[in-house]
């Protein structure tokens, strides 16, 4: 049976890889990489550099997978489901063609495969088309990289933490500590100005950007820095943590 590993590689620093991940890299013959176009070529190149740094033997190879377009507008969940189905069809054909029945293949997942990453859901669909089993190697998440970079605890004492998206933040608002991912619209600007924010982009990389303060103090600065960074790199990957103002901060 074909074996696939989904290996978490952290969020920009090759040193984020765990010993378990390095071992898995060295047991892999075929690496599947999604081609997301020239604007995100840097992310594919980082995967190649990680392999070159940690794999001790020659002979492994990369197979690039075309990335189908995702429909904009309309029903968001329907658009994502159609996009995932198109991805699964492409991946299944590549795995059946490029991965031998006794080989080990791998997808290198940004951050951790279990957190706002679609690889595992798509492989569930692939497994209905191609006989395979897959294993998951956890990785350092953007959440961990963000709190470490700012030197802050994730949670307040005895309090929960919500991990959510910009879309959900705009819909439901902020009621406690929240980490917001996948936000292209600066949704923190919908929060009260006293809300505390710790923002980071390109976490773990040489291009890392960090800003902290209240939404009222630094919200527009974050918006401007985001726009500049996206124009410079052609892509942006950012995350931020929000905490409502304490009662004495509002008084």
UniProtKB/TrEMBL annotation:
<dbReference type="Pfam" id="PF00590">
    <property type="entry name" value="TP_methylase"/>
</dbReference>
<dbReference type="GO" id="GO:0032259">
    <property type="term" value="P:methylation"/>
</dbReference>
<feature type="domain" description="Tetrapyrrole methylase">
    <location>
        <begin position="6"/>
        <end position="218"/>
    </location>
</feature>
<keyword id="KW-0169">Cobalamin biosynthesis</keyword>
<dbReference type="GO" id="GO:0043819">
    <property type="term" value="F:precorrin-6A synthase (deacetylating) activity"/>
</dbReference>
<dbReference type="GO" id="GO:0009236">
    <property type="term" value="P:cobalamin biosynthetic process"/>
</dbReference>
<dbReference type="InterPro" id="IPR014777">
    <property type="entry name" value="4pyrrole_Mease_sub1"/>
</dbReference>
<keyword id="KW-0489">Methyltransferase</keyword>
<dbReference type="InterPro" id="IPR012797">
    <property type="entry name" value="CobF"/>
</dbReference>
<keyword id="KW-0949">S-adenosyl-L-methionine</keyword>
<protein>
    <submittedName>
        <fullName>Precorrin 6A synthase</fullName>
    </submittedName>
</protein>
<keyword id="KW-0808">Transferase</keyword>
<dbReference type="InterPro" id="IPR035996">
    <property type="entry name" value="4pyrrol_Methylase_sf"/>
</dbReference>
<dbReference type="InterPro" id="IPR000878">
    <property type="entry name" value="4pyrrol_Mease"/>
</dbReference>
<dbReference type="InterPro" id="IPR014776">
    <property type="entry name" value="4pyrrole_Mease_sub2"/>
</dbReference>
<comment type="pathway">
    <text>Cofactor biosynthesis; adenosylcobalamin biosynthesis.</text>
</comment>
